[in-house]
Hints:
Blueprint: H1 9-31, H2 39-55, E1 79-81, E2 90-92, H3 95-112, E3 120-126, E4 129-136, E5 139-145, E6 151-153, H4 156-159, E7 177-185, H5 188-200, H6 209-217, H7 222-226, E8 231-241, H8 248-257, E9 267-269, H9 272-284, E10 293-300, H10 303-309, E11 319-322, H11 329-339
Helix pairs in contact: 1-2
Bound molecules: nicotinamide-adenine-dinucleotide (NAD).
Nicotinamide-adenine-dinucleotide is lined by residues 25-26, 28-29, 35-39, 42-43, 70, 88-89, 123, 125-126, 130, 146, 183, 235-236, 294, 297, 321.
Amino acid sequence: GPADGTPSEDLREEYRNLADAIRAHRYAYYQENAPTVSDAEFDELFRRLETIEALHPELVSNDSPTQEVGGDVSSAFAPVEHLQRMYSIEDVFSLEELTVWLRRALAGIEQRSPGSSVRWLTELKIDGLAVNLLYRNGELVRAATRGDGVTGEDITHNVLTIASIPRQLSGDDVPEEVEVRGEVFIPSKDFAALNERMVAAGKAPFANPRNAAAGSLRQKDPALTAERPLDAYMHGIGARTGLTAEAQSETYELLRRWGLPVSPYSEVLDDEEAIVGFIERYGDKRHSLRHEIDGIVVKVDSFALQRALGHTSRVPRWCVAYKYPPEEVNTKLLDILVNV
Length: 340
Ligand code: NAD
């Protein structure tokens, strides 16, 4: 580029094209549940955009894909404003990047809250669709998709068809109001059978369990949703009144007691070594779990420290997703073909 460090016209054009491509891919993925590229390819485009922005911050506008939670709201559903915003998660793609992220988070905590000890709530990243459940005095009054993080789509009737999500919470300590966030998914054992049924009915099979979950949940007719093998695990809370807990792992205990489904795989870990052990363990058995995963999520467990770190317009600074390297199915297939 020009010697003064400003972006060249070529780079500006690449930047615009990248942003447009990312918007188009997001539309296909979130609105049509029909991705046009693989997640790994999408992640690479997104990363390239982030790199250009890091080198040339003057290019970043408020509507850059890096500043927004992807996922618009379809007019097929009534819009729902979340009481508290929903965010995406920052990705890292190697253990080295994870180390850098953890050090940065620890430094941020040390700066804002010196002497704190940090524990890491470590979870599987469920390959499903995010939902926001609003419970008032224990009753499910509304369920919505994440949408753009501010406004989601009203899918209450569809969510009520999911057997593991209670309409009424049980217990005498249910809060006055709580937004429970979680992931709706199709269990691995049911995914292949669902696709066989789709094909037998003359319909296109789903590309992956995430698209199957999204397509099943975002139906106009709840009777169709009811026929799909949907399940869910809760992994966070938003707005709350009358709920006191100091740490996210503590809320999981409460949610479980009230009858909500919570992942059995989560662990509270002390340090990076333990987190890496978790990543390795689940990397080996990622295809023999109840659901598909596309990585591991690591969260600062303490709510006070989460608040101390805060968030950007797109992601919390207290949470990161480690993505496993993409599996080279196509390359292997190619090898086989080449070797015949
Ligand atoms: P994301 O799906 O990578 O991460 C954020 C989401 O993870 C949260 O909203 C939450 O619903 C979910 N999640 C699952 N398990 C969780 C847990 N244990 N704790 C907390 N959250 C958990 O972020 P995103 O912004 O929705 O989308 C980016 C992802 O979607 C990338 O993986 C990208 O590859 C893919 N994508 C692909 C295309 C495509 O064209 N192929 C387009 C857009 C996005």
